[in-house]
């Protein structure tokens, strides 16, 4: 494949593929494409079949072929066919969700279940604003498949529904549960006699000690600097309370320049000023920086709980990676030190125009059963949104620290969703500002100014649908 | 034979032309149409908005920033690539001198040609990943080399001051080999007698290159120019894989902007098509201009 091919293929998946799709559905811009409505599958509802699955209806599942692979999905599909032996399941896996499925969305013939993930996932703002997703409320109200006496909703961890909701409508099932924090090697810390600092002053003192020992205290993914916005915003939320996050999510004017954000940016500027960051970090991508960290060149790195499986191949034995919450700014913090950012991730959706919507929801019910969730955790070493599903499953070291951190955080856990409401804001604008800030080219005031400018530009863009969320 | 001409033409020409119109021309036309809508790409709903997308484009700082970078690429990549390509090709074709009247290449010319051509064999994706490691700020080949001579190395791709030039260097590197071979082929078509005559007249190598080789190669150089100009207006894969336009948009190009608008950070297919239409006209203008400017200096020697 040469460069023109790639450019043509990518930029023109829409432009090139639409003529065919256009012929079928009466052209992209003429607003056709509803002719499949008559052929949707619907069975009769019963206690055994609360979602009304037509038992011989085929089900098509498209899985993102990323870090989790596709074996877990095949297991879920097997569980589904156990209950509906007559249903034929069509399974496929791709890394290019957007390009593969875009023409099918336009055509009005999308698959029944889509794992919309990875770097080429489809922007949710676009999908939701075009009413392309089926509502999942029926699923929440249905009884759990194998946890007696509870509805599906009762079995989910806190925040799992919220993060998939747009204007109060639950549309996206985020299947995994991810914690975001600061990682260190328990082995390195034990060998050197260091212990993780709970306040910012102690953290800076510890950094000084680490640097004196010839190790860089911090490293980060300079080519994806938004990874560092996570601990910074976390620090601000722990200092000023969850309203800091809702203000940012709701694009409130000067949300990024609140006192809490200012205090957090000032604090984090310290590690830049004192040169506590591994030389050259600003030129590393996420894999390169994580690898430098695994090699013991730096002590801390900011990442989500997928870090352990992502680094599986290069982590030395006995490294014992451990997640920890961001340090508290001081005694005035509204949230305790233990509070950590926890959120549901790995989005699954049922397209509104899927032919077997009931089957898609039933497939979700299978995934959210205790059996389905445990099988997932065993296969890919990641937590699911199903509460208590890790019972009796032996977890790898890093993931067990994630479970502990989430338990300790409990009801103090927090999250923000501006990144899924407005993908561009985090991926492009805050990302660029973080790059300038953590490489020391701009100071805290200018950093917040740039982020705010980005948020304002989204707020003023009338072509982007806006969402609000309550505190 | 004459009575069988039309069926033959129809059979062999009409189907390909139809296929071409359907799969190549019609998408372009449709891109024009989509660029006048607010289509978001995941449903069949699109409303015509006239030229609103182009108006937004005109005021979009990020697009202008990307265009500025493309303009710099347009100014430098073809010149650097052609100059280096000509230089290497000349060395290979007539760098060595055998006796008093012979014109030969340097010793091991075939090997050099293979080495120069090597980047062309690799997929662009591999080139991008390879150079990302070369530019690794701590372990990279380049960094180590700079450190070895006792100089401080920048963080290459992590610094807005250097990232763009690093990508530009890779663009030139990955293209030069092809033009060395292209110019080499063109040079071998130049009659040897001309060189022998020039040599007998006592011309220096530089004069030979400037006064004889270059004018005779002008057609080829012109083709190279057009290709490289189109490449410079694109530059998509290398930028996307090496820096994705960062840090702080310092390496952004128009192709990345279009991709990002359609598939990356948002899904605005109408707007992305508008960027594509602008790209189309820019590329077309550059191609037409370079052909026009070049045509006047055409020299015929046969």
Task: Describe this structure as you would to a colleague.
- Chain A: Residues 1-30 form the signal peptide.
- Chain A: Keywords: Signal, Transport.
- The complex is a heterodimer of chains A (471) and B (302).
- With 471 residues, chain A is of the alpha/beta class.
- Chain A is 42% helix and 12% strand.
- Chain A has 18 helices and ten strands.
- Chain A has helices at residues 3-25, 71-83, 97-107, 124-129, 137-141, 186-192, 200-212, 229-240, 243-249, 259-273, 286-294, 307-310, 357-367, 370-380, 397-409, 418-421, 423-438, 444-460, and strands at residues 59-64, 89-94, 113-115, 165-166, 169-170, 173-185, 216-218, 298-304, 321-324, 341-349.
- In chain A, the strands form two sheets. In chain A, strands 1, 2, 3, 6, 7, 8, 9 and 10 form an eight-stranded mixed β-sheet that branches. In chain A, strands 4-5 form a two-stranded antiparallel sheet.
- Chain B is mainly alpha-helical.
- Chain B contains 13 helices and no strands.
- In chain B, helix 3 packs parallel to helix 7 (163-188), helix 3 runs antiparallel to helix 10 (218-234) and helix 10 (218-234) runs antiparallel to helix 13.
- The radius of gyration of chain B is 24 Å and the shape is globular.
- The mean pLDDT of chain B is 87.
- The interface between A and B is large, with 67 and 61 residues.
Query: Could you give a short account of the major beta sheet of chain A?
Result: 8 strands, mixed
Question: Beta-strand percentage of chain B?
Answer: under 5%
| Outline type of chain B | globular
Strand content of chain A: 5-15%
C-alpha termini separation of chain A: 49 Å
Q: Strand tally of chain A, please?
A: 10
User: Low-confidence segments of chain A, ≥5 residues, pLDDT <50?
Assistant: 6-36
Distance between the termini of chain B: 35 Å
* Average of the residue pLDDT scores of chain B: 87
Along the chain, the helix and strand elements of chain A come as HEHEHEHHEEEHHEHHHHEHEEHHHHHH
| Oligomeric status | heterodimer
Broad structural category of chain A? alpha/beta
The run of helices and strands of chain B is: HHHHHHHHHHHHH
Count all strands of chain B and give the number: 0
- Low-confidence parts of chain B, pLDDT < 50 over ≥5 residues? none
Distinct helical segment count of chain B: 13
Gyration radius of chain A, rounded: 23 Å
> Percentage of helical residues of chain B?
over 70%
Main location (chain B): membrane
Keywords (chain B): Cell membrane, Membrane, Transmembrane, Transmembrane helix, Transport
Membrane topology (chain B): Multi-pass membrane protein
Family (chain B): Belongs to the binding-protein-dependent transport system permease family.
């Amino acid at each position: 494949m040469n460069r023109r091919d790639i450019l043509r293929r990518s930029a023109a998946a829409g432009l090139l593929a639409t003529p065919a799709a256009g012929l079928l559905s009466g052209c992209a811009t003429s607003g056709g494409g509803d002719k499949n409505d008559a052929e949707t599958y619907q069975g009769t509802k019963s206690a055994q079949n609360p979602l009304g699955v037509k038992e011989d209806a085929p089900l098509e599942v498209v899985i993102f072929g990323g870090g989790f692979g596709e074996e877990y999905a095949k297991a879920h599909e097997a569980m589904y066919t156990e209950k509906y032996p007559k249903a034929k399941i069509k399974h496929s896996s791709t890394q290019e969700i957007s390009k593969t499925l875009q023409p099918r969305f336009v055509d009005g013939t999308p698959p029944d279940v889509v794992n919309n993930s990875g770097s080429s996932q489809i922007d949710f703002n676009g999908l939701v604003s075009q009413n392309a997703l089926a509502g999942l409320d029926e699923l929440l109200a249905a009884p759990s498949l194998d946890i007696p006496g509870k509805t599906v909703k009762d079995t989910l961890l806190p925040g799992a529904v919220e993060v998939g909701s747009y204007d109060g409508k639950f549309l996206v099932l985020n299947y995994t549960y991810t914690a975001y924090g600061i990682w260190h090697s328990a082995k390195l810390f034990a060998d050197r006699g260091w212990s993780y600092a709970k306040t910012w002053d102690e953290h800076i003192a510890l950094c000084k000690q680490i640097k004196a020992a010839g190790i860089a205290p911090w490293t980060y993914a300079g080519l994806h600097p938004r990874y560092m916005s996570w601990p910074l915003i976390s620090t601000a939320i722990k200092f000023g309370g969850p309203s800091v996050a809702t203000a940012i999510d709701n694009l409130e004017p000067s949300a990024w320049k609140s006192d809490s954000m200012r205090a957090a940016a000032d604090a984090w500027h310290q590690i830049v000023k004192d040169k506590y960051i591994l030389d050259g970090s600003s030129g590393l991508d996420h894999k390169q920086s994580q690898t430098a960290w695994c090699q013991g060149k730096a002590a801390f790195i900011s990442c989500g709980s997928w870090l352990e499986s992502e680094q599986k191949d290069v982590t030395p034995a006995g490294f014992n990676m451990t997640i920890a919450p961001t340090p508290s700014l001081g005694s005035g913090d509204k949230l305790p030190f233990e509070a950590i950012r926890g959120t549901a991730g790995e989005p699954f959706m049922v397209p509104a125009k899927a032919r077997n919507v009931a089957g898609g929801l039933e497939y979700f019910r299978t995934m959210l059963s205790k059996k389905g969730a445990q099988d997932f955790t065993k296969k890919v070493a990641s937590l699911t949104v199903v509460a208590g599903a890790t019972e009796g499953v032996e977890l790898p070291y890093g993931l067990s620290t994630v479970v502990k951190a989430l338990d300790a955080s409990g009801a103090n856990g927090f999250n923000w969703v501006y990144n899924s409401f407005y993908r561009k804001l985090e991926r492009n604008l805050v990302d660029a500002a973080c790059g300038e800030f953590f490489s020391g080219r701009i100071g805290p005031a200018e950093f917040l100014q740039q982020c705010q400018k980005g948020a304002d530009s989204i707020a003023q863009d009338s072509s982007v649908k806006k969402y609000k969320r309550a505190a | 034979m004459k009575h069988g001409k039309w069926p033959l033409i129809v059979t062999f020409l009409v189907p390909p032309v139809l296929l071409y119109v359907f799969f190549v021309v019609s998408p372009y036309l449709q891109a024009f149409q989509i660029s006048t809508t607010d289509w978001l790409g995941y449903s069949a709903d699109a409303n015509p908005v006239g030229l609103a997308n182009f108006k937004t484009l005109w005021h979009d700082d990020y697009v202008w920033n990307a265009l500025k970078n493309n303009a710099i690429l347009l100014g430098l990549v073809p010149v650097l690539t052609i100059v280096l390509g000509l230089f290497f090709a000349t060395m290979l074709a007539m760098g060595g001198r055998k006796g008093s009247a012979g014109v030969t290449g340097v010793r091991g010319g075939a090997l050099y040609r293979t080495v120069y051509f090597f980047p062309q064999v690799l997929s662009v994706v591999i080139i991008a990943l390879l150079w990302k490691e070369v530019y690794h700020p701590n372990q990279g080949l380049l960094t180590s080399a700079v450190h070895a001579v006792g100089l401080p190395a920048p963080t290459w791709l992590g610094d807005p001051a250097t990232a763009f030039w690093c990508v530009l260097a890779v663009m030139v590197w990955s293209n030069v080999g092809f033009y060395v071979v292209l110019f080499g082929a063109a040079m071998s078509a130049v009659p040897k007698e001309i060189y022998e005559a020039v040599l007998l007249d006592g011309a220096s190598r530089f004069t030979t290159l400037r006064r004889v080789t270059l004018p005779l190669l002008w057609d080829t150089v012109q083709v190279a120019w057009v290709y490289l100009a189109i490449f410079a207006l694109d530059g998509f894969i290398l930028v996307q894989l090496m820096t994705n336009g960062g840090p702080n948009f310092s390496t952004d190009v128009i192709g990345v902007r279009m991709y990002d608008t359609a598939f990356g950070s948002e899904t605005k297919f109408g707007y992305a098509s508008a960027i594509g239409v602008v790209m189309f006209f820019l590329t077309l203008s550059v191609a037409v201009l370079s052909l026009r400017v070049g045509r006047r200096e055409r020299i015929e020697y046969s």
